[in-house]
């Protein structure tokens, strides 16, 4: 079998002779080739200036009966009549003037030249073209004459496209990675007449379309039957840029909904006093603590709603997580009644509804409010209450009021101490007193720090006990009699010398908050004391007791970490004089202002009036009407990095600090706005 596409350029006195020579060289028959006449031959005048005929003969692979009379067949070929003009004479005549002498040019893919007595034109090939001069391959610049036969061989380039189909982990999507293919069509550029012509090539890049049938067959082979995007497949098959295409997407499962508590009325403590239309505060309209009556429905515990399964691209079902019910812990003052729509929570006492939601559990109870219709003084004694306290009068000198809920004082707090688990509202002034809002939040934040270190030490101690328990000197049977006390003592005397002090600090911190912490905290502290502090008679009998203690500590650690510090806690007062205020939330003081006091806030601080002397530390922003004094004690306002300080009128001796940057005002300034820029430098506007 002959190789198709094989080509030869042949010359002869005429076309017939040139074709015969080519067929003989190729050892082919006429029906198996394609003949292109490049130049007709010419005899010239009196034998001078004769030109040879030039043909290109290409094997096309036709299978036919051999031609009996080859010469007759050649004579019968329909050949185009060409004028006797070698090397593209048509173009040559176009440039027929003296300026073409000694130059070459390219027009319509043909190389032309005009000789001169003193100069020969030159032509130089390029990498992507094969130049033949009189059937010989030319690799460098070459001199040419009008009688030379010049041909160029230029090939198109084809790069087949490459694609890969894969299913991503989880089978929720399938992607098609494409490296597009293309055909580069090339032709020779036209060149103006010059003494040396550099052959250059023009290229046109034509994208190749990917056949879709093999791709669809691969889809069927991989079992991809769900979520197929045929529009995206068509776009991928015709793209001219490499990329990854998502051609199938599974249906994710629709998650269900866990059981939840749906309140039917306002249960949260409102943060603030009611304002009049002119912006002033109406202290007569006090609706801060929502309350319920016996028989009133607080809300409904709704059952879980299951989710809807999804599907992978291969048609496999994907199931959502199981929807779980809400665990109800019914506290004091409520009953739970089953209903078609869920479980109704009904109050049996009048008071303030207390709803604590943690994870998948809800603890709901009614806290009755303690109302004191006069001053808290020596005649009444100190007040300790588990719920909310409302004091119609004032808190007088030396008295103590503690409540786990909210405290409302219609009068003043004079040289007294007031501590609330949530909010403190004082209608008038706080004078030479200490007021705390969110005591449990402060306490739990401190306990959290100790618990974090305690759990780390406990984990290391557990590993050490596991290791020591394998030593023959400590037989497991003796632990049931003596407990783990001997092992704990050895460890505390060795690698864990700081552990007893850490445990004792944690126990003392928990005991200091027995009035605001739940009973579980007290039980945990007792367990630590009997297990670690009383090491000579430790109640820990096995490693399982240690592991259980670690799990309890980790649960308390998670509870204190998840607790929203300052949520529902705030202090509001008319004025503050020579006092200390601590709030895990916001602190708001009306137009009467603050004088020579220490303010600590876990939230925002806002003072409508003046701040004269003292210090304000806020975890969030501070906004004040006027600060400082003329020649008096300095007034300091501090916020962390990322927060701001706004002062309408900052007088001398006012110090502002944002992060670690401090500035002191020497002259009175208005509309002060302080913050840090992106480089940590203090900006003052």
UniProtKB/TrEMBL annotation:
One of its GO terms (biological process) is cell morphogenesis. This is RNA-binding protein KhpB N-terminal domain-containing protein. InterPro entries: FapA, FapA_b_solenoid, FapA_N, Jag_N_dom_sf, KhpB_N, MinC_C_sf. SMART domains: Jag_N (SM01245). It comes from Paenibacillus darwinianus. It comes from the Bacteria. SUPFAM superfamilies: Cell-division inhibitor MinC, C-terminal domain. Residues 9-60 form the RNA-binding protein KhpB N-terminal domain. Gene3D superfamilies: probable RNA-binding protein from clostridium symbiosum atcc 14940.
